[in-house]
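Build the 3D complex.
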Amino acid sequence: MKKISRLGAEARLGWTLVMPALGVIALIAIFPLGWTFWESLHLHELRMPWLGKPFVGIANYVEIAKDPRFWAALGHTAFFTVVSISLELLIGLFLALAMNRVFRGRGFVRAAVLVPWAIPTVVAALLWRFIFESQGGILNALLIDAGFINQPVVWFIEATKAWVPVILADVWKTTPFVALLLLAGLQNIDLSLYEAAAVDGANAWWQLRHITLPLLKPAILVTLIFRTLDGFRVFDLIYVLTGGGPGTSTEPVALYTFNALLQNLRFGYGSALSVVIFAITFGLALLYVRGLGVRLGGEE
Amino acid sequence: MRTGLVLLACAALAACSAGSKRHETVLTFSGSALGAEGTLVAKQLKRFMQLNPGIRVELQRTPDDASQRHQLYVQWLNARVGNPSILQLDVVWTPEFAAAGWVLPLEKYAPAKSEFFPATITANTWAGKLYALPWFADVGLLYRRTDLVPREPATLEELVADAQRAKAQRGGPRYGLVSQGARYEGLITGFVEYLGAFGGRIIDDSGEVVVNRPEAVRALEFMRDELYKWNIVPLDALTWHEEETRFAFQNANSVFMRNWPYAVGAMSDTSQSKVLGKFAVSPMPKSGTAPNGHSTAALGGAQLAINAYTEFPDAAYKLIAYLTAPEQMLERAQAVGQYPTRPGLYDDARLRGAINIPLENARRAIESATPRPVTPIYTELSEILQIQLHRALVRQAEPRQALDEAAARINALIERTGMRKLMRGVS
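Done.
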């Protein structure tokens, strides 16, 4: 309060100018969030109007905490996020370093690399589904031709095998995006640092560890935030590829929520799930920003 | 009986045309506007309007996909929207809509229940009242390659033996039996058939969950053994829906297939069918080892019900009565091959040309049809069961353990929704 009054008219003008933007944010972010939270405190089953819409406090959250399917889904989501992001960062870094070199046709390569990213997820997922189909799938045909296997592998009926197409598809689709974010970071690094290092006799590995990676840290962390949040909300890819199966062994939290909210029309319980997902992703974002010292847009 | 219906309909018209002198009676009918189905519906609605000058019927296009249509209906009805005035319900939705008060009971119109297959009436009855009239029936059928297995298997065990023998022949098909094993509603329909064959049920007449009783465990074990022990069902089938099984059978890759009647038309029409004239259908057989087992077909199909929020319930019933009358059903069978829900029509020579299988087999299949549990919480019950059945079939869990888990979850669902009292004596 003190601060504002000291700044006086200027601050008031400032607030006035950002008011419309804040209003929009309140309308499209805070209001729905608040509504969802309110809904999550009720028993509200669209299909069972005879139950009414009583206020039940945290009963929905208690049900979530007690549901092994939710915890399993959370585990699947974490597994998917960690594995696919690790692969994406590794391959993406490699691609970015390669694209950062000066070579002929670099512009073309940079554009071409983006193609998988440009394909809608559902289409990409269908594509991978066809590749991994047990009868007539390309992959099985190739593996049989190469003599690795005798019988076509049925990828989608074993939990461990079903993860393969899911993670491959995500890595294939998202690595270009990661590579591009990292490439942007690489281009901000002052080349004279490398020159100085070379003069001092540092080899390529040393340069990568002591110049490239430290200076790339902000870009890596931004990528991590984006990808972690995306990974935690993964839905369409798994919906199309495995439908969460076999059983529910590849079901992520977003798919579980979708089921509760839109298939079973349990608005109260589904809203509580949405709030939980929101809390988790928000917590993760905070963790990155605070714990790892990312400055979003600010100077170090 | 028919004249009775017509008289009743006239009375209904008189009642509503008197009431709506001021404004026109406009009904909306929910359905598909696509293909042969769309043409047929448009034709029948037009004829209805010619017969009933006071009523105008508009076709409201709704998605063909059942779960999408269901979601739309539920949203509309929660908002108390009176359109479409006539709802086209999947067979498992009627109790849900009835318990929610979204569709009107038909008792006051005194429909001739006895003219329909009993199972189709049971499926549409909730708390002792009829809420929808069966429009057409879908039943699970066993397709068989007559060149490989000339005689219809009398038991499931015979089916397994036949499949193994035909598969082992030189140049025999790759698979013994193809069925829908993906984790979706189709898996339940298949399970219901095995369950009946072994004398089991999901929920019994007193509302008790009995899906983990020994008969049910045996049924699920049988399904699992078909995959892993007798190797007649390919593991691929655990990701299959109807069309994948049809492709396999149509390409002469399987001895038997479990599918719905639509496949008959699809396989007789196309020039790609390799099994033209070489297949027959029959009801799924019962198990020879279960004393209480009986040949069981899952019942599917569409029902017509009156939207509880419509302004014109009487006119709506009139249209329902018209569309479910014998003439229209016959026409529907001829145009799109869907099975009438009136046993009386199965003696009609005109039906013979319309459905491509012996009428006797079709009638036997529908007579052996069993509704899936008739309960307002069916959809969630089905989801629980789908997951547990799939877990057992992909060997993540033993059948007994999976069904115990399913039963526990279904019981919890019943408690949560206060269904215990309502279900007693209704299912």
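The longest strand of chain B covers residues 297-306.
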